[in-house]
Design a protein that fits this description.
This protein is α/β, with parallel strands linked by helices. It contains eight helices and eight strands, in the order βαβααβαβααβββαβα.
């Protein structure tokens, strides 16, 4: 059987829950996507009610389980044409800005740059004040000046586009997204 040549997206999840449901909804609409989870992402997904085993039933999922991050070899085989890191914690953003690749997600970002594959990053800490949805409800958050500077610096790196919200992320991904499932269709009436 011939190998599928559909361009794939490598989607990295970090330890952020900021707009996590919206990001997962976009993942569901991509025709060819693999998930890359940092250790923190695996924990946070569980806390927010998205068990990794459920994701594994629908997607190919790579977890941060080895020091050398073996899945990054797929980038050298031309399997991916886009990396998405969404949502991206301030910790991951800072590491990407400094060239540190010590998690699976920061490693796929680094390898993408080395292979000249574009990256799209939804940086969570992009405004001085924001409200995030924590498991217990909305929480006000006040990113530090260093977090804001790192988000700005990330936007200046080669092969990197930074988006500042789920709507901007959806617009950036729009050429790839499948149409949303229709929920407004009237049920068929048999026997009418």
């Amino acid at each position: 059987m011939a190998e599928d040549k559909t361009p794939r997206v490598a989607w990295g999840f970090t330890g952020s829950g900021h707009f996590l449901p919206e990001c997962l909804a976009l993942v569901e609409r991509l025709p060819a996507v693999d998930l890359f989870l940092s250790r923190a992402a695996a924990e946070v997904l569980q806390v927010y009610g998205y068990p990794v085993r459920d994701l594994q039933a629908r997607f190919r999922v790579f977890r941060d389980s080895a020091a050398s991050a073996p899945p990054v070899g797929l980038f050298y085989e031309g399997r991916y044409d886009l990396v998405v890191v969404a949502p991206a914690t301030s910790n991951s953003v800072a590491k990407m800005v400094c060239g540190i690749s010590d998690t699976l997600v920061t490693n796929i970002y680094a390898q993408a740059g080395k292979c000249r594959i574009p990256s799209l990053v939804f940086a969570c800490d992009a405004s001085p004040e924001l409200v995030t949805e924590a498991p217990g409800g909305p929480v006000p958050v006040y990113p530090r000046p260093i977090d804001l500077r790192n988000t700005e610096a990330l936007a200046g790196l080669a092969y990197t586009e930074v988006v500042l919200g789920p709507d901007a992320l959806a617009r950036a991904l729009s050429p790839r997204l499948l149409p949303p499932a229709r929920c407004d269709a009237a049920p068929s009436q048999a026997g009418s």
